[in-house]
Design a protein that fits this description.
Layout lengths: L3 H6 L3 E3 L5 E5 L2 E3 L1 H13 L7 E5 L5 H12 L23 H4 L13 E4 L8 H5 L3 E6 L2 H18 L7 H9 L8 H14 L4 E5 H6 L1 H11 L6 H5 L2 H8 L2 H5 L2 H5 L1 E2 L7 E2 L18 H15 L7
Parallel strand pairs: 4-5, 4-6, 6-7
Antiparallel strand pairs: 1-2, 2-3, 8-9
Bound molecules: adenosine-3'-5'-diphosphate.
């Protein structure tokens, strides 16, 4: 049987946002490291009915959503001063399917039902789709997501002394659908359509709406994943405590998120602070020209046409 590397070497490829090629696997673009992880997970990952799978395209808000979901699920185990989110990046509290769980699920903490992935809906391991586990998906205005993505790459490459491509070049690739786990619109639509078909299984969230009234979405999220807040908890302010603990302002100033590193000692090591940039809606205005914004909006309108979804 061909190895994963051999299969990947036969896939369509092109230059991505770095010096390395990215490959088109099952309709989405990704680099070899992650495709290999996706292939392994597709082959061996077995989901449990109690699992809660946090899904997203990159740079749409999973750092925040993981924190909120982890805080909801662990609120009776830890108090405000002992929650692991205060001393760990949220990505270290929630295993990532195509990296941490690709080889085997045996390293999972049996008390933690959470896992996360960027894999598009149609490429998720079969057991996630077929089992009764819950999926929570977050998406974001593609203009902000693109800018966040680009600046994330710039910061990563700078930390490795590599030169990033120009914003205009990355923008052109993004518009063509060439971004990590992209085309972005296909990613969002896959989960959107599935959420309409299976509203009990998939909760579809938007970063902007969550920023508008986080407490409402924390309650909604807790109900959906089967960890609802009791009347007494609501009365004593448990929802607001989680909102505040997981706010950009709070998490970004924690020592671990200022000086810590994610996946230290691996080829994909990242400084935690790179995950916290501005956390604002509409920051694209500081980076995209009106013409670029109009182009992205028009692609979004065209791609989402008839779906009932607006971004
Ligand atoms: P910006 O780059 O626009 O600031 P990711 O997909 O890695 O989670 O990041 C997406 C965006 O979420 C980034 O946006 C990041 O700054 C922002 N973010 C990180 N933590 C957040 C939080 N606690 N609340 C709101 N936004 C957050």
């Amino acid at each position: 049987m061909a190895s994963f590397k051999e299969i990947i070497s036969t896939l369509p490829r092109r230059k991505g946002w770095t010096d390395y090629d990215i490959f088109l696997y099952q309709g989405f673009w990704c680099d070899t490291f992650f495709i290999e992880g996706v292939m392994r997970a597709q082959q061996s990952f077995r989901s449990q009915p109690s699992d809660i799978v946090i899904c997203s395209a990159p740079k749409t808000g999973p750092t925040w959503l993981k924190s909120l979901t982890f805080a909801i699920v662990t609120r009776s185990t830890f108090d405000d001063s002992t929650n692991p989110l205060l001393s760990n990046l949220s990505h270290d509290c929630v295993p990532f399917l195509e990296v941490d769980l690709a080889q085997s699920s045996s390293n999972r903490d049996p008390n933690n039902p959470l896992l996360a992935t960027h894999v598009p809906y149609s490429s998720l391991p079969r057991s996630i789709i077929d089992s009764s586990c819950k999926i929570v998906y977050i998406c974001r205005d593609p203009k902000d997501s693109f800018v966040s993505n680009y600046l994330f790459f710039v910061r990563i490459l700078a930390s490795k002394d590599m030169k990033p491509l120009a914003l205009e070049e990355a923008f052109e690739l993004y518009c063509q659908g060439v971004s990590s786990y992209g085309p972005y619109w296909d990613h969002v639509l896959g989960f959107w359509k599935a959420s309409l078909d299976r509203p009990d299984k998939i909760l579809f969230l938007k970063y902007e709406e969550m920023m508008e009234d986080t407490a409402v979405y924390v309650k909604k999220l807790a109900d959906f994943i089967g960890y609802p807040f009791s009347f007494e908890e609501i009365e004593k302010g448990s929802v607001e405590k989680i909102v505040n603990m997981c706010s950009f302002e709070n998490l970004s100033k924690l020592e671990v998120n200022k000086s810590g590193k994610h996946r230290e000692g691996t080829p994909v090591v990242i400084e935690n602070k790179i995950y916290f940039r501005k956390g604002k809606v509409g920051d694209w205005e500081n980076y995209l020209t009106p013409k670029m914004a109009a182009r992205l909006d028009s692609i979004t309108l065209q791609k989402l046409n008839g779906s009932g979804l607006t971004l």
